[in-house]
Amino acid sequence: MVSSLRLPTLTSLFSPSSFARRSTVTLRRRLHLRPPLAAGSYAQSAASSPPETEDRVEGKKSSRVQERANTDRVITPRSQDFNAWYLDVIANAELADYGPVRGTMVIRPYGYAIWEAIQDYLNVKFKETGHSNMYFPQFIPYSFIEKEASHVEGFSPELALVTIGGGKELEEKLVVRPTSETIVNHMFTQWIHSYRDLPLMINQWANVTRWEMRTKPFVRTLEFLWQEGHTAHATPEEAEEEALQMIDVYTKFAYEQAAIPVIPGRKSKVETFAGADKTYTIEAMMGDRKALQAGTSHNLGQNFSRAFGTQFTDENGQRQHVWQTSWAISTRFVGGIIMTHGDDTGLMLPPRIAPVQVVIVPIWKKADEKTGVLNAASSVAEILKTAGLKVKLDDTEQRTPGWKFNFWEMKGVPLRIEIGPRDVSSGSVVISRRDIPGKQGKVFGISMEPSILEAYVKDRLDEIQSSLLERAISFRDSNIVDVSSYEELKEVISLGKWARGPWSASDADELRVKEETGATIRCYPFEQPQGTKTCLMTGNTAKEVAIFAKSY
Amino acid sequence: MVSSLRLPTLTSLFSPSSFARRSTVTLRRRLHLRPPLAAGSYAQSAASSPPETEDRVEGKKSSRVQERANTDRVITPRSQDFNAWYLDVIANAELADYGPVRGTMVIRPYGYAIWEAIQDYLNVKFKETGHSNMYFPQFIPYSFIEKEASHVEGFSPELALVTIGGGKELEEKLVVRPTSETIVNHMFTQWIHSYRDLPLMINQWANVTRWEMRTKPFVRTLEFLWQEGHTAHATPEEAEEEALQMIDVYTKFAYEQAAIPVIPGRKSKVETFAGADKTYTIEAMMGDRKALQAGTSHNLGQNFSRAFGTQFTDENGQRQHVWQTSWAISTRFVGGIIMTHGDDTGLMLPPRIAPVQVVIVPIWKKADEKTGVLNAASSVAEILKTAGLKVKLDDTEQRTPGWKFNFWEMKGVPLRIEIGPRDVSSGSVVISRRDIPGKQGKVFGISMEPSILEAYVKDRLDEIQSSLLERAISFRDSNIVDVSSYEELKEVISLGKWARGPWSASDADELRVKEETGATIRCYPFEQPQGTKTCLMTGNTAKEVAIFAKSY
Q1: Domain check: are A392 and A434 in the same one?
Q2: Strand, coil or helix: what is B424?
Q3: CATH number for position B518
Q4: Are A142 and A176 in contact (CB under 8 A)?
Q5: 8 Å CB contact between A207 and A323
Q6: Which of A539, B179, B225, B512 counts the most CB atoms within 10 A of its CB?
Q7: Mutate to test the interface with A, among B135, B183, B211, B227 (most CBs of A within 10 A)
């Protein structure tokens, strides 16, 4: 333990509430935090204004310290301790904070804005593909959950139950929705009568609750936000097409917006959603090379329609059970963005989902320079806002420009524009890229002339967007290794990489791999190599390669 | 009871689930439904295709009947039974349905689209006025609720409590948020240190739970959707300004978007939010002249900051408690829209929040007319969509044009465009207004030429928007009566109207009015008459007039 070296950074550790009586060590264990280390690259890389000394006293409130708390923390280097780095980034960039109840999370404005960017894109795509938004109640009668056998098995250990309402013990316990298939089917059964009512294609943006034991901000929390799509179709073919269409929407989103080169594929039977016939997934490689399941789309077959009697009269007058799908992406995706692109300096955001795409830092020393610089900065901000960009002008006088450079780099803003007195005279600005550190990423003398500036900034943002994706692709590809035997698989996994190999072995073998290596089948990727394949475990013929990896 | 005259219309009454074993009469009582009456103006007003006979058998499923169920129901005339009319409109227009748990509601796509229109407008206004969206967990430790004395008194009878999580009894019961002031203050206490952290202005879109005994779709449900704004300020003046600013945002929204001429004002002490110093409200008059509290904004003073120790260091280095506000609008507002504008035919939606602003109905008889008519209809749809309008082309062949006219009128679509073979030849269309029934609202020969058509349609939509507001204003004003004595007040209330009169009497007198008349002080309106005033109850001098009315 190195906690004595440096005091913890999360404001929640200083909570004056009833929870504060727990020691911070307990809290850290409770939240699976590791204490941040002493040497922080963020402070080290500060170009100016040396970091103020950390003089907090654990458990004691000092107002001066707190005033600085938000901005002068140190981020553990990513290479040193990925998990500590992740938590430091979330705290320092003010993405989220811990809620008072174990495993819950408060999503702060900067983190929520990333979620809003995800929503804005997907919401349009869902409507374009024929889905309507609606809202189902979050309280589900306990008996509903029990109707679909594998569903109850999968979810019952994770349920939060309401047993008291309006001061009275309830006759039937209510489940706080962990997912909505059951209540959706209860309602679909009332709305679907004929083939003319199909397909029925809906989506809801909602909160869901799963009583997880091991939590981690964004990645796995007791309550999280998501969208869940639910559809009903007249034929199995249509349901399959829909499930595939939606995993494709997610894949495009991941590549084009989040610059995350996910691998889309099919889950193994062992990893399939509780109640689904097939689960499609997008798997992302995080910076520590662990896999993150970033979105799933399920072909539910007739499992829920049989359990809930969701039938329709087909064109021949016959009653049939509907074929269904469900699909979801959650606030976990925000964790995926952090862990894909971040570096020792902090967050690095793809321009298309960055809450701030360009930060403008005015620089002056003498009083007589101030007006000119601030006017120029405002006019540059206006030009870029008019061009549809998300711009932040940081004109506070409480901080030095150097401090601001570091702060906004840590917050992952893709581009920084600096404007000083000399820039004002020459009618130009200095532009720095977040993804290329130091002088290499800095260009001087970009004209303030609106059309030139707008074009330059937009081109750079496009370049950053592409560059982040390319970098992630090359990281991913250099960490996936083809294996043809279990020995090779074990070695690759022990190196922290992903193993890809032909697989046609049993569920028992798959579980054995998990026990012995910690890795699971992430998916059978859609993209399959040509040629005959021999199962790495059994030596039998295999139809497909599977990807094995440790995962979140 | 007239339930034997006609069978019930809500699909939920035919639920095949475990809940179906309850008789429909029980269900109706449980849901505060009244059985719809036999004579329905909707079917009567059908211009063509006589309504098919209602041949359902209560409790028995007939697939043929169900196929027609959604569209051939009868709406109780509004004048006959306002409550039955309201529930019929919600069922027939597919705005919402009952959830499986008592008092919960499923918001269906058409109803949710109205909520989305509300969100789209307000979300922009909140950001323009400096607020950021974020998200707080919905589970609140029970001890939090107890910290603010009047808050716990107000909310504890309505709480839903989670007592079991992950299969285990919890050490501390968790409240499913009824509102978030407590958890917000718990977090604000950790984030606010200095005056430089103020003002802190946030908003969240979320679901909330209140264990209400008497529920009604949209108006009062066990779970509902809302936005809740929460702000913290350095001075009481700033907090007051913020509370007033937000009630003003709501007022403008109500007038300009929803065409609801709400009366903004201040709540009496008796009606003030549990934990607030002052509550501002917008009060709307529904079609039955009952008042609906459609939005509130609270000046919380230092009540929560003292309870939670939310302090900041001011510019002089002194520790002070912050001054706060909170404000909310919920899915209840959708109920307000229905009950303000609807008529015997069904829903009537203001164009600015209508999910469909223009419906296009192609009309043909002979096969050789079909292609020409459908092509023209598609091209008209395209013209209007390109102009940014929300357009629905109803080209299904399963229904007659007359049936479609009625259906979309019932759904409240502001404008209908009819296109038949003769219109195709003349290059023109027929346009009907939802707000002016029959021939008066119908205009022939509007050119299909894009610029002419677009201008005509947009002008008509603007006219409808204004006309709905004017109509609602004149209805409101003809139903508010100035009173100067308690006798007059009682008479006005007994006539179902609103009474406005000078008031400076005690809380006890206010409660007596409620007991004796069923009316409460809806607000002290911001707009006050000039001159000296004498309290209608006590004869003492009064500073203000108050508005009394029965309410939802």
Answers
A1: yes
A2: helix
A3: 3.30.110.30
A4: no
A5: no
A6: B179
A7: B135
Instruction: List, as one string, the DSSP characters of B75-101.
Output: PPPTTT-HHHHHHHHHHHTT-EEE-SS
- For A233, A249, A269, B74, B387, the CA distances from A199, given in Å and listed in that order, are 5, 18, 27, 26, 29
Q: Report percent pLDDT > 70 for chain A.
A: 87
CA atoms within 13 A on the CB side of A368: 0
Identify all chain A residues contacting B158, using CB atoms and an 8 Å cutoff: 166
Chain A closest-CA separation from residue B97 CA (Å): 9
The widest CA-to-CA distance across chain A, in whole angstroms, is 85
pLDDT at A140 over 70: yes
| Residue A432 CB-density burial (10 A; 0-12 exposed, 13-18 middle, 19+ buried) | buried
- Nearest Cα neighbor of A354 from A409, A293, A289, A287 is A409
Assess whether A145 and A101 both reside in one domain: yes
The model's pLDDT over B469-490, given as tens digits with 9 standing for 90+, comes to 999 999 999 999 999 999 999 9
If one compares A392 and A71, the residue with the highest pLDDT of the two is A392
Q: How many domains does chain A have?
A: 3
DSSP bridge partners of B520: B549
Radius of gyration of chain B from its Cα atoms, rounded to whole angstroms? 26
Question: How confident is the model at residue B67, as a pLDDT?
Answer: 37
Predicted local distance difference test score (pLDDT) of residue A62 = 37
Q: In b/e form, how buried is each residue of B15-40, taking b as 16+ CB within 10 angstroms? A: bebebbeeebeebbeebebbbbbeeb
A·B CB contacts under 8 A = 218
Mean pLDDT, residues B363-373: 95
Residue B369 C-alpha, separation from nearest chain A C-alpha, in angstroms: 25
Same domain, B413 and B362: yes
CA distance A67 to B314: 11
Q: The tokens of A342 are what?
A: 């971040």
| B242: its two tokens | 């913020």
Say whether both A448 and A495 belong to one domain.
no
Q: Is B162 within 8 Å of A159 when comparing Cβ atoms?
A: no
Residues of the domain holding A456: 358-461
In the chain, the amino acid numbered A373 is V
Chain B residues with CB-CB distance to A196 below 8 A: 67, 398
pLDDT in tens, A169-214: 999 999 999 999 999 999 999 999 999 999 999 999 999 999 999 9
pLDDT at site B44: 30
Q: Which two structure tokens, joined as six digits, stand for A245? A: 């269409």
Q: Do both A155 and A293 map to the same domain? A: yes
**Cα–Cα distances in Å, from A292 out to A139, A178, A492, A551, B67?**
29, 20, 18, 6, 44
Q: Where are the beta strands (DSSP E) in A331-466?
A: 358-362, 391-393, 415-419, 428-433, 442-447
pTM of the model: 0.88
Return the residue in B21, B134, B399 with the most chain A beta carbons within 10 A, the one to mutate for interface testing: B134
* pLDDT one-digit tens code per residue, B249-271: 999 999 999 999 999 999 999 99
Domain match, B398 and B541 both: no
Average pLDDT over residues A369-395: 97
| Residue B92: other Cβ atoms inside 10 A | 24
Q: Shortest CA distance to A75 belongs to which of A343, A254, A327?
A: A343
Pairing between strand A415-419 and A358-362? Answer: parallel
Residues A376 and A514 both lie in one domain: no
